[in-house]
Amino acid sequence: MAGKVVLHYINGRGKMESIRWLLTVAEVEFDEMYLTAHEQYEKLQSDGALMFQQVPMVEIDGMKLIQTKAILNYIAEKYNLHGKDLKDRVMINMYSEGLMDLMEMIMILPFTPDPQPKLDNIQSKAKERYLPVFEKVLSGNIYLVGGKLSCADVQLLECTLMLEEKFPGILGDFRNVKSFQGRMIQIPAINRFLQPGSKRRPQPDENYVKTVMEVFQVKKPLP
Ligand code: IBG
């Protein structure tokens, strides 16, 4: 029998958070091994667990998976969150990729010495490039693709919550996206995930930044 799913990453959001969200929605239980020191990261490498010497790494079904998108796609396929056919899947992937681009911009902010110009850029990209796409598709549709919940919906919820943390009220001009959020947070697994004490990680703080720098021995800001 396959053992429990185990996530290997920092105790923080970063690139693992979307994986936590998706496992939660798929109602898959998981454990976490948090990297707190560089030696733990080196140990994973010397064990041959990290194909490209990077985390996120997820132990699942007897495999050690790396590369965030590959991991998300595996979970989405396995738990029927990747549409009904190839055409659904390509649309889901298109939405997902856009959302990941936007979330990545937010993810690197804590490592940016002068974040204000980046924040301004994220806000205008969100309002002018990304949110209008979702506002349009959600006019008359409950979910993004094929009338059925997919990993793109889960990422859209994650992304809009991240945006609201940075820019409260940003969804004011996006009523359909706001209603979508309201529906999504009623899904019981999501509702539990949003409660304090869940496996959802908090917004990055100084300690998280320090741990990332220490574990990966980063000398300069991330790209
Ligand atoms: N393409 C890979 C993926 O998506 O999984 C990239 C993974 C990656 O960049 N991993 C980083 C790593 O292992 C940790 S997340 N670095 C060590 C190395 O030597 O490359 C870093 C990150 C954070 C927040 I934290 C935002 C973006 C990146």
- From the spread of the alpha carbons, the general shape counts as globular
Order of helices and strands: EHEHEEHHHHHHH
Helix amount: 40-55%
The biggest sheet, with number of strands, parallel, antiparallel or mixed sense and barrel status, is: 4 strands, mixed
Number of domains: 2
Q: How many helices?
A: 9
Unreliable segments (pLDDT under 50, ≥5 consecutive)? Answer: none
Protein structure class: alpha+beta
In whole angstroms, the N-to-C terminal distance is: 41 Å
CATH class of the largest domain: Mainly Alpha
Chemical compounds bound to the protein: gamma-glutamyl[S-(2-iodobenzyl)cysteinyl]glycine
Strand order of the largest sheet: 2-1-3-4
Task: Indicate the radius of gyration in whole angstroms.
Answer: 18 Å
Overall CATH architecture of the largest domain: Up-down Bundle
Count of extended strands: 4
Q: What amount of the residues lies in strands?
A: 5-15%
CATH topology of the largest domain: Glutathione S-transferase Yfyf (Class Pi), Chain A, domain 2
